């Protein structure tokens, strides 16, 4: 099975996974420990503490869900919503739409707050929506919409949401570790992300964090969460030291041991660089790429672009698939196709985590110049 | 974070994870590809084909769920059951009980067929239960009950189940790759397993397989599965080549790329050894361990013991925790504690996959002889 033995060394400049540092790959290959081994539990505790630092939160209930980012989304939905609850979800791309679907499957009545793809929300729009639907239990928004490359400001939203008694839920899959994100300062009650974007770890875990308000909501549930696998009332007894009866740990499921090693190492690298330096690097590389793309006559689709993912229109005369195939074949560069309504109309160039470098920016610009010639 | 950089090299003789071959750890650390990269899709297709061979099935819909074994259990439950459906679950240990809980969370009415922990089921008991509950949509049983070490024969069950129009669902978490398991010959309609038991791959994926009857049931659903993450109607469009509209693949979630490499390598190793040789090795190592344990005066709890997991009573005078701690500290050997009602009463010694060797059997016997002295 030679293909597997030697996967090609791509330069991953799509919407994720992003390039994984060799240190993280090495951590992944460390000897497997048992999921109740004291040494593994220490590694897991450290991993959760590193996650708290990267999320900028003191939330005790911060842990990696044993699935990819969408499992984190579903974990938050099934635990915070009960059948009949109302929620508002901001839908301006694929991932907002997906959150609506996930929440509806929980039996919730979901009000979609829609704006055209690529646009984002003002505080006025959010306040109006909350006033239109006074009974909502959850208000959910995507900070970094991976399908459009649009960046959503989160400042000031919590006050609006909390004054109506709702919980503030954020999708940070494509922003955690690449954009400013202050879970506690911004009053976020529940948040999920993925490992394979700006943390530059392989996919397979979903960092989540729940604050006090979210905990109180879960403790007040009248029904069991519909998912056993994602039931936080049980997960917390495994992930939190002293979370079980008598202060011990209670086995729930077998955690993805080696993926936890990798996440630990990836988070360590993030904090070695420093969150502020890392965020500044993502901003600078975005500006460098933007200048180069605009010099090539390429235009951004969203008004407020993410630094981590650059969504540009496919220029007239260029063949979507052929361009991406040539980038892959001649340069080993992966960029992303358009998603949803943007299929065939957009390219998405990710500069995430380990991949957000001068070398990659200048290389992808050189490659596009050649391929679009 | 030195603990993570150097996890100890344990000898994993508990209920899983089992020891991971170096080849599998190396595969895990191969460069990360994009989840839509043609090379990755080829690796995934190969992995699904290897899974079919190990499951002994032609089922097209055979793929790894992006979560640990319990995600596979939940995947089958949420896709095959709709609210109000009836099911029979055989409960003779923790995992049968868990399946009942998972299915009840799907809104199903679940009839537990209970026998004392450690015992298994006769065809007569199964036929009687099916006759008592004529409307059931699903009959579910655990082939290898990890909490008691009991082995359940599956021969002849399918005819009973199918003659009543129900689907035959099997938990094979602790048997796949270690015990005989013939999905097609035995008429199994849906089955799930884990990677970290007899396949000797780290935890993080759950191999599942669905047959034609299960597919027909899913196609006839009136409601969406309550889980978006585990919705097979979408997963099949990603995992099956040509599963999407127009014959293409449809993105669902970002698959755990590196874990797929590891599973590919682990399955390759299973088939290099040969399924029959591997099953015979597990049987021989079980017999060797049994002779040694019985010579030490230790007794098996289940009447029909698994070859892959040996569940023995803790002898009078031995301190459960102290013995396990000494095995870990002095020998680097992990064995399992009792689970559920067997906590404090049983030890579980796993001989799974790469761990089922003469070397490990003789070592754990020597260590127990010393520690129980």
Overview of this protein structure:
The structure is a homodimer of 373-residue chains. The first copy, chain A, is of the alpha/beta class and 373 residues long. Chain A has two domains: 9-17 and 275-371, Aspartate Aminotransferase, domain 1 (Alpha-Beta Complex), CATH 3.90.1150; 22-271, 3-Layer(aba) Sandwich (Aspartate Aminotransferase, domain 2), CATH 3.40.640. Chain A has helices at 2-5, 22-28, 38-55, 69-80, 94-105, 123-132, 157-163, 212-219, 232-239, 257-273, 275-295, 320-331, 358-371, and strands at residues 11-12, 61-65, 86-91, 109-114, 138-142, 144-145, 150-151, 167-171, 190-192, 206-210, 309-313, 333-334, 336-337, 346-350. In chain A, the strands form four sheets. Chain A has a seven-stranded mixed sheet with strand order 2-10-9-8-5-3-4, sandwiched between helices. A three-stranded antiparallel sheet of chain A has the order 11-14-13, with helices on one face. The mean pLDDT of chain A is 96. Chains A and B meet through α1, α2, α3, α4 and α5 of A and α1, α2, α3, α4 and α5 of B.
């Amino acid at each position: 099975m030679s293909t597997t033995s030697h996967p090609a060394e791509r330069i991953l400049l799509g919407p994720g996974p992003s390039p994984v540092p060799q240190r993280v790959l090495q951590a992944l290959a460390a000897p497997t420990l048992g999921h109740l081994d004291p040494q593994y539990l220490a590694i897991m505790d450290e991993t959760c503490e590193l996650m708290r630092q990267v999320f900028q939160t003191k939330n005790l209930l911060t842990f990696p869900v044993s699935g990819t980012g969408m499992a984190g989304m579903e974990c938050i939905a099934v635990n915070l919503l009960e059948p009949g609850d109302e929620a508002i979800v901001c839908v301006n791309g694929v991932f907002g739409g997906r959150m609506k679907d996930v929440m509806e499957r929980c039996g919730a009545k979901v009000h979609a707050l829609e704006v055209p793809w690529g646009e984002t929300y003002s505080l006025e729009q959010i306040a109006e929506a909350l006033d239109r639907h006074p009974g909502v239990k959850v208000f959910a928004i995507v900070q970094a919409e991976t399908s459009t490359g649009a960046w959503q400001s989160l400042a000031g939203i919590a006050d609006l949401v909390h004054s109506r008694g709702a919980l503030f839920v954020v999708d940070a899959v494509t922003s955690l570790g690449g954009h400013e994100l202050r879970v506690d300062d911004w009053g976020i009650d529940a948040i999920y992300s993925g490992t394979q974007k700006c943390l530059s770890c392989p996919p397979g875990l979903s960092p989540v964090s729940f604050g006090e308000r979210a905990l109180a909501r879960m403790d007040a549930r009248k029904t069991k969460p519909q998912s056993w696998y994602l039931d936080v009332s049980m997960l917390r007894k495994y992930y939190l030291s002293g979370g079980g009866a008598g202060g011990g740990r209670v086995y729930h499921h077998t955690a993805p041991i080696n993926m936890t090693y990798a996440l630990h190492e990836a988070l360590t690298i993030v904090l070695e660089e420093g969150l502020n330096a890392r965020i500044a690097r993502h901003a600078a590389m975005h500006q460098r790429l933007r200048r180069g793309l605009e010099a090539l006559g390429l235009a951004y689709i969203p008004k407020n672009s993410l630094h981590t993912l650059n969504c540009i229109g496919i220029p007239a005369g260029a063949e979507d698939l052929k361009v991406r195939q040539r980038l892959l074949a001649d340069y080993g560069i992966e960029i992303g196709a358009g998603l949803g309504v943007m299929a065939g109309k957009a390219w998405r160039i990710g500069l995430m985590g380990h991949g957000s470098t001068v070398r990659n920016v200048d290389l992808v610009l050189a490659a596009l110049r050649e391929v679009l010639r």
